[in-house]
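Q: What residues go here?
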């Protein structure tokens, strides 16, 4: 019965993972649609909508710069430059200024920060679920993933701005989406195909098992006994003839 349990587990796994990938595809479509229809907001006073283009004016707090480790751009290795910005209303924003090439060096990167008032435009990304980090997230001035709590003083809104124009902008490394919805849909179909194969294997195995049981059920008990005792009985008969 081991194969029955195995097929059942594969069916359950395939169905569940297929549904998960299907939902991921739906979420990605909604997110991309929201990004495409996101408004341009100037000097927001509240939390922007996910994916909004926002324009903020203020000054960078260069002394609080941290670096997002292990970023790549066009095959080059580097970091993302993360700097708090205080806007004209006293609101604190976390700004990803862009990519800074470092190569394989683990030394603290050196980057200049514009002084005075700057006006920047960028894409707003909410602080959502991220992959788990194994080990310390903050090592020196390098972060393994963006975490606003790494700064002693908090920010006015839960998220950050990926700057793509304005003073202090560096080459843009961030893209709003990594895996398209179609890829998730393809994965869902693959998982459901696995579940279908497991279901077919279960049906075929069950039919064979039932056929074997029916065949055994049609065999009369005396036939089974005869098969088991046929040889000894014949030997006994011959022995009797000799004695006679």
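A:
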């Amino acid at each position: 019965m081991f194969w029955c349990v195995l097929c059942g587990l594969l069916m359950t796994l395939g169905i569940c993972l297929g549904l998960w990938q299907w939902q991921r595809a739906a979420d990605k479509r909604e997110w991309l649609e929201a990004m495409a229809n996101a408004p341009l907001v100037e000097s927001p006073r509240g939390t922007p909508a996910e994916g909004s283009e926002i324009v903020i004016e203020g000054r960078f707090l260069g002394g609080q710069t941290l670096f997002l480790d292990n970023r790549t751009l066009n095959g080059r290795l580097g970091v993302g430059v993360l700097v708090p910005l205080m806007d004209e209303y006293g609101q604190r924003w976390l700004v990803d200024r862009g990519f800074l090439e470092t190569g394989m060096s683990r030394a603290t990167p050196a980057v200049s920060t514009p002084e005075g008032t700057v006006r920047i435009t960028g894409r707003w990304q909410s602080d959502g679920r991220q992959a788990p980090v194994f080990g310390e997230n903050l090592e020196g001035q390098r972060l393994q993933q963006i975490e606003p709590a790494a700064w002693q003083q908090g920010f006015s809104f839960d998220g950050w701005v990926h700057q793509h124009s304005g003073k202090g902008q560096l080459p843009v490394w961030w893209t709003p989406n990594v895996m398209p919805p179609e890829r998730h849909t393809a994965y869902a179909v693959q998982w459901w195909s696995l579940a279908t194969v497991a279901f077919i294997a279960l049906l075929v195995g069950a039919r064979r098992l039932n056929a074997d049981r029916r065949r055994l059920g049609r065999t009369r008990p005396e036939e089974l006994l005869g098969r088991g005792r046929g040889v000894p009985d014949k030997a006994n008969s011959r022995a009797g003839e000799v004695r006679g």
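A: Context that may help when evaluating the design: The chain has three helices and nine strands. The helical segments are 2-36, 181-218, 221-243.
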